[in-house]
Specification:
This protein is an alpha+beta fold and 555 residues long. Helix content is 38%, strand content 19%. Strands 15-12-14-13-17-18-16 form a seven-stranded antiparallel β-sheet, with helices on both faces. It has a five-stranded antiparallel β-sheet with strand order 5-6-10-8-9. Helix 17 runs antiparallel to helix 18. The chain is globular. The protein binds flavin-adenine dinucleotide (FAD). Flavin-adenine dinucleotide (FAD) binds next to strand 3, helix 7 and strand 10. The site of flavin-adenine dinucleotide has 38 residues, from strand 3, helix 7 and strand 10.
Length: 555
């Protein structure tokens, strides 16, 4: 089992004992600066409750069901402790964390089971069906859209969480096809370690990489930080095996097929509503030996968007390409600043840039290449550099790229620190054709800002372009607003509703990579249309006629 949940923060992000690691001086500087920007004095939030203080009702499951589950999963594979039920009740979205920190968890699973293999998964689904239990498949539990909330539908007798993390083996390597087959409960680091040992990589690095699983990536249609080079997970999956309540479904391992509609495409993004993905065959790439990542400054976000589009449409092979809007550029600088240090090279460089005309409103672009040789990486980075300079960019050298690589899996720890300061942090993401990206950005920022003013009295909204394609790009928004403990969930849902309406109103998709879960499901008919929804429901009815798989999510 690769994920040791007792070593992870149950009501926040990441490993116990790890944090943003701010010094006291830096903490008080940041508190003051953020308060100043929000026009208020930050008051520390109430301390999160201890897990041990949360009282749970005993499991409603009878001994006969528990015995049947134990016969399949073994004594240790069937758990009803408070720790297991609480750590499998919710994911890692803002409302999930607010509820966990207060100890008001709401929906709880009756039992958490760890099947040892594919047959075990099939047997657990049979037992759950007989007992009219809802089944929530749980990988890393890093969903940020309510995808793993332990909620049963009316008429169901409770929730069984099926934790996939015992299914963590490398099954096969096919060197001549450059593919690898893994069980789906393996987590990011373990999967990548198997490939790296063979000189290969999957190249899939969502920011949650360290704590999420292959099955979760496929089920949510996830996308990694280097998707420009390797593609989203849908481009990396060759085939898979899924255990549904109606039996096993497998797709064929071939590079492409014209045998009708693509079943992989219907299963990728199915969010545990059709069955449990138990294994997948993946395309792998040679492990890059060098990377070259740099920064470039533009006078405005629209200018950097145009420059990034130029690079993508010229087909320059980059792995990293992202552009921060003015607020994010400024906030990133603020977060890096250490008032305890006498010399701040970054601040000096930006002061010089201001004198050169790159002042307020400026926007940073990060770009980089990963290759087998220094020469190839350098050539691609230099090609992008020429293109970006021609579009008006001012080179910032390698320092911003180095800082991004160093912090790329650490930034989520910041959310817990901000929550401790009484500030809520949430993220939203979408994608649109290039012709709409700029308007989408300004429209959503405006909607977020208005919604935060209305429901929280203040807020900061910022965004960046995180993934790009020839025909369009993904925009990723981050918001910060002061928490009102008496109505924090309402604050969040109102802001989320107004922002999501704005995203769809400006022609963006409901989600580029976080998925739908329960948080976005009410907007699905807007995106898919009535007939599209009927087709998706028909597929669900075929594979899960009793509606036991992850009710209330996606559809
Ligand atoms: C800090 C942070 C950063 C993130 N960064 C990114 C990012 O860069 N890119 C990105 O795409 N996402 C990102 N996410 C979102 C999340 O990590 C992804 O959705 C991830 O793919 C979820 O994987 P998981 O194993 O944690 O799945 P879980 O959270 O356990 O489950 C997610 C959904 O998939 C279903 N599921 C899980 N395993 C299976 C399976 N084997 N079979 C069938 N269904 C299954 C669940 O039922 C649920 O509906 C981030 C989340 C956080 C908290």
């Amino acid at each position: 089992m690769t994920i040791a949940r007792d070593k992870l923060r149950w009501n926040g992000w990441g490993r116990l004992g790890e944090s943003v690691g701010f010094s006291r001086v830096r903490e008080s500087y940041l508190r003051e600066q953020l308060g100043h920007r929000l026009g208020l004095r930050l008051a520390p939030a109430a301390m999160p409750v201890a897990l041990e203080s949360i009282r749970l009702p005993p499991t409603k499951l009878g001994q006969s069901t528990l015995c049947a589950l134990r016969a399949v999963c073994g004594e240790g594979g069937v758990r009803t402790s408070a720790f297991e039920r609480i750590t499998h009740a919710l994911g890692k979205s803002l409302p999930d964390l607010l509820r966990l920190r207060r100890g008001e968890i709401g929906a709880l699973p009756e039992v958490v089971v760890y099947p040892p293999d594919e047959n075990g998964v099939a047997a657990v689904l049979r037992i759950a069906r007989e007992g009219q239990l809802a089944v929530v498949t749980f990988g890393g539990g890093t969903s940020v859209v309510g995808g793993v909330e332990a909620r049963a539908a009316p008429g169901q007798s409770g929730v069984l969480v099926l934790d996939t993390t015992r299914l963590d083996a490398l099954i096969a390597i096919d060197p001549s096809s450059a593919t690898a087959t893994f069980q789906a409960g393996i987590d990011g680091p373990a999967l990548e370690a198997e490939l790296v040992a063979r000189g290969r990589t999957l190249g899939h690095f969502p920011q949650s990489f360290e704590h999420s699983t292959l099955g979760g990536w496929i089920a949510t249609r996830s996308s990694g930080q280097f998707s420009n080079a390797y593609g989203g997970i849908e481009e990396l999956v060759v085939s898979m095996r899924v255990i549904t309540p109606e039996g096993a479904l497998r797709t064929v391992s071939v590079p492409r097929s014209a045998a009708g509609p693509d079943l992989n495409a219907l299963l990728v993004g199915s969010e545990g509503t059709l069955g449990v993905i138990v294994e997948a065959t993946l395309r792998t790439s040679p492990l890059p030996l060098v990377h070259d990542e740099r920064g470039m400054l533009f006078r405005s976000f629209p200018e950097s968007l145009a420059a990034v589009r130029e690079v993508v449409q010229h087909g320059i092979p980059l792995s990293l390409l992202r552009a921060s809007d003015a607020t994010e550029t400024e906030l990133a600088q603020l977060l890096r600043r250490d008032p305890g240090r006498r010399f701040d090279l970054g601040a000096l460089a930006l002061r010089a840039a201001s004198r050169a005309g790159y002042g307020p409103g400026r926007s940073v672009v990060l770009y980089g290449a990963e290759e087998m040789t220094r020469k190839a990486a350098g050539q691609h980075a230099a090609g992008a550099r020429r293109c970006l300079r021609a579009a008006g960019g001012l080179p910032l050298g390698r320092a911003p790229g180095r800082a991004w690589r160093r912090d790329r899996f650490r930034t989520p720890y910041l959310r817990d620190w901000l929550l401790d300061q009484g500030l809520a942090v949430d993220t939203l993401e979408t994608a649109a054709p290039w012709s709409r990206v700029e308007r989408l950005h300004s429209g959503v920022i405006r909607a977020l800002q208005d919604a935060m003013e209305a429901h929280a009295g203040a807020g900061i909204a910022m965004g960046h372009l995180s993934h790009s394609y020839r025909d369009g790009a993904c925009l990723y928004f981050t918001i910060l607003f002061p928490i009102d403990p008496a109505r924090d969930l309402l604050q969040w849902s109102e802001i989320k509703r107004e922002a999501t309406d704005a995203i769809l109103g400006e022609g963006g998709t409901l989600s580029h990579h976080h998925g739908v879960g329960s948080d976005h499901s009410s907007w699905m008919p807007v995106e898919k249309g009535a007939l599209g929804m009927r087709a998706l429901h028909a597929m669900k009815d075929a594979l899960d006629p009793s509606g036991m798989m992850n009710p209330g999510k996606l559809l």
